[in-house]
Amino acid sequence: MNRSIALLGLAVVIGGIVINESDSNYSNNIKTEITSKVSTTTTYLQSKVNNLIQTKQPSQTTSNNTKTASKSQTTSTGQTPILSIMDGFSVDNTYYYHFTKKTPTAVRQVFENAISAYNDTGLVNLVAGEGTSKQNRITFSIYYKDEGANTTSVELGNGGPKLIYNTNDATKHAINHATASINLNYSESVTTSVAMHEVGHALGLDHSDDMNSVMYPSNQNVTQLSEGDIDGLKNIY
Ligand SMILES: [Zn+2]
């Protein structure tokens, strides 16, 4: 059976402020906010704080499940597109990455291959480690999803950014707590090309209709970033 192989993208934006004792930047932001309102009434402050707390909840969950309908395109310059949820946000180019405990060595290896390829561009810096809540992070993992015998398309992996930002920050600086995962139900998932694709999503790249791009929606065993992929990364970082 000549089945096509789909690579999934998962993109989530979380709007709002994170209120966390250990998170001094955000705490300072709240302090600044409160200090600036000190001449107004406590009622106002209380409602403001309540609003901040409410917006902590995820405001939007988007999953571009490309198995059935893939949005793949390139820009007129051949640049690999950027996930729309990244629009307008600035994200630091250093990421701390780690693997969940159950991630087997072979999967770790293909992700490490992908990490090297992205680091070689000099545009991003993926560093082994857990990172903190204030730093960009990528969590690598595995999952098992059986598509059944009659499917024409199987999902080999998924990945995507999760942006966390302070709604009061006019500069729209965001922290990306991204994920990239491989579907171990299919042996062909454990390849550098699939890992490259899912890391691309984690970093904010969308699908490309260029078959030389690692972001082509079905697996072409491409293990090198195309010029378009690099241009896409330059656009984000
Ligand atoms: Zn994809």
From TrEMBL:
Residues 54-79 are annotated as: Disordered. GO terms for biological process: proteolysis. Pfam families: Peptidase_M10. Keywords: Hydrolase, Metal-binding, Protease, Zinc. GO terms for cellular component: extracellular matrix. Residues 83-236 form the Peptidase metallopeptidase domain. It comes from the Bacteria. The keyword Ribonucleoprotein does not apply. One of its GO terms (molecular function) is zinc ion binding. Residues 59-77 have a biased composition (Low complexity). SUPFAM superfamilies: Metalloproteases ('zincins'), catalytic domain. PANTHER family: MATRIX METALLOPROTEINASE. This is Zn-dependent m10 family peptidase. It comes from Companilactobacillus tucceti DSM 20183.
